[in-house]
Write a structure and sequence with these properties.
alpha/beta; 7-stranded parallel sheet; 12% strand; binds 2-phosphoglycolic acid
Length: 241
């Protein structure tokens, strides 16, 4: 997740990642999705066309059709320029007014369009201190996924908000407990296997050494460290080391 970062020249940093990934022994087991800003989706998709690396967007509008929504882009438009995934419900967007209801509509529209969704959930520091993390996550999950029956194209990203961009990470014990809870909740909702649950928040080459021991975690949503090819490669290497 590049967030609001990058121009066309930033795509050069992918060269090293592509080169590394080509010869990386575990590349068959590793799925990488880059989510650049919308302005770079098309160029990035072209650049990665012959690789295993996919491209996603960071948000979408909830409307299925074109409309008078100045500054917005819907799932169909994102797919049209090469996105195969879209992040929905990131805390940085929830913070500026994105509600569970809006998130649910966005998810529906994205799935309808054939995009895979990376649905973000997570508690604030205050909520954690009040020990209402489970309650908060349960609400985000049940409202966000309301009336969504098929979990095939769903990925969940658990991102404790206090951990995003701060270098602070939950303890292994806490993270194991929370991700197990999330999976149990998802199993109940879908009445089948839980979709993959990613962890996000200050993931880098160091913290990944701790996270990789947690069996419940199926992958990572990497923000800051995804912008540097070196830092990103470090995460992949250290995960399998
Ligand atoms: P971070 O961001 O890796 O910089 O903490 C994660 C995210 O917001 O997705």
């Amino acid at each position: 997740n590049w967030k609001m970062f990058g121009g066309l020249n930033s795509l050069n940093s992918l060269n090293k990642v592509l080169k590394f990934f080509k010869t990386f022994k575990k590349n068959k087991f590793t799925k990488i999705v880059y989510c650049p800003p919308n302005t770079l989706i098309q160029a990035m998709s072209k650049k990665l066309a012959n690789s295993q690396i996919k491209v996603g967007a960071q948000n979408c509008h909830a409307a299925d059709n074109y409309g008078a929504f100045t500054g917005s882009v819907n799932s169909f438009m994102l797919k049209n320029v090469g996105a195969q995934y879209v992040i929905i419900g990131h805390s940085e967007n929830r913070e500026i007014g994105e509600t569970d209801k809006i998130i649910n509509l966005k998810i529906k529209s994205a799935l309808k369009c054939g995009l895979k969704i990376i649905f973000c959930i997570g508690e604030t520091l205050q909520e954690r201190k009040k020990k209402i993390t489970k309650k908060v996550l349960n609400k985000q999950i049940s409202l966000g996924l309301s009336k969504i029956k098929d979990n095939k194209n769903v990925l969940i990203a658990y991102e404790p908000i206090w951990s995003i961009g701060t270098g602070k990470i939950p303890s292994s014990q806490e993270l194991t407990k929370t991700t197990s809870f999330i999976k149990k909740t998802l199993k109940n909702i879908f009445r089948s296997k839980s979709p993959p649950v990613l962890y996000g928040g200050s993931v880098d080459g160091n913290s990944v050494k701790l996270f990789k021991k947690i069996r419940e975690i199926d992958g990572f949503l990497v923000g800051g460290a995804s912008k540097s090819s070196k830092k990103f490669i470090d995460i992949i290497r250290n995960y399998y080391r």
